[in-house]
Amino acid sequence: MSKIAVVGCTGAVGIELVKCCHARLSVFGTESPDLYASPRSAGKVLDTPYGPLTVIEFNIETLKSKSYDFIFLAVSGDFSLKNAIPLTTNVNGTDTYVIDNSSAYRYHSDVPLVVPEINFDSIAQMNSKLIANPNCTTAIAAMALYPIHQQFKIKKLIVSTYQAASGAGEPGMQELLDGCKAHVNGETMPENKIFSHPLPFNCIPMIDKLQDNGYTKEEMKVAWETRKIFRTDDIKVSATAVRIPTLRAHAEAITMETEKDISPMAVVECLKGKPGVVVEDDPANNVFPVPLNCSGRDEVSVGRIRQSLIFDEKGVDLFVCGDQLLRGAALNAVLIAEKLAQK
What we know:
Blueprint: E1 4-7, H1 12-22, H2 25-28, E2 34-37, E3 45-48, E4 51-54, E5 56-57, H3 60-66, E6 70-73, H4 77-87, E7 97-100, H5 116-119, H6 122-126, E8 130-132, H7 136-152, E9 154-163, H8 169-184, H9 217-230, E10 236-243, E11 250-258, H10 264-271, E12 277-279, H11 291-294, E13 300-308, E14 312-322, H12 326-342
Parallel strand pairs: 1-2, 1-6, 2-5, 6-7, 7-8, 9-10, 12-13
Antiparallel strand pairs: 3-4, 9-11, 11-14, 13-14
Helix pairs in contact: 1-12, 7-9, 7-12
GO molecular function: aspartate-semialdehyde dehydrogenase activity; NAD binding; NADP binding; protein dimerization activity
Active site: 136, 250
Family: Belongs to the aspartate-semialdehyde dehydrogenase family.
């Protein structure tokens, strides 16, 4: 049975990490994880599937003395840069797997960036105790795209993302809710502090910092991370990331060019039975992925599969949707730990 800690337990991802661990008692055991957070949250009692658990103030020496099997980090990049590597080694000389949800180490050549259904073996190949969890949009898209890439060899991707407020954590979701309530009640919307513009009844075509090439960092993450996870430098990716006024579950419109001839039916057959992916593609009967139906769901949904009008027989268009807090964050991290525990 596994000894687990969750650091950053009070945030949106941290809360889901605890739930995902509890859903796998047969793998991790019935012992509840230890929950850590900042001094501001220390002492709070959280309602969890394990029952009420008290939040412990984070102290690196405390964690290093506990010899955890797995430590999940749901924290900022700066926090991870300072603490992630030291946490992999305990005071007694044993090692701990640290699974980091931040972007701090995703692009380090000696740190595996893992979607367990795709490149779990990279952990052993790199012999690393620190494992990076991908960006939410990348993880969701990769689940649908990798089987297609294996069979048809993707050359180019054009990706437009429609990202929920949950991508900015609990404060982002609360800002959306507060703004919507104020608008419906005929009140002045509160000043936006999390997003660059008011999000209610709006969309914001810029997420994260602007880069020198005119793309945002969020958009470049899709390119950088897809290539690293797929272990290829040959896929060209152009992305546009848009924040929309939904609470959770991201959606992505994806156009691809492939080396081999491809068709919508071939994509359906390719994805059939793949773990973590479900095809919902009957648009004549209004069956297709939507964020509301994908919220709280483990699987990534794929639909609106069409032959490309640009790339003809060498391309398809499709629509992908997945829960950002689950497949795009907590679930992916816990599935990594699950496979390590089973191994």
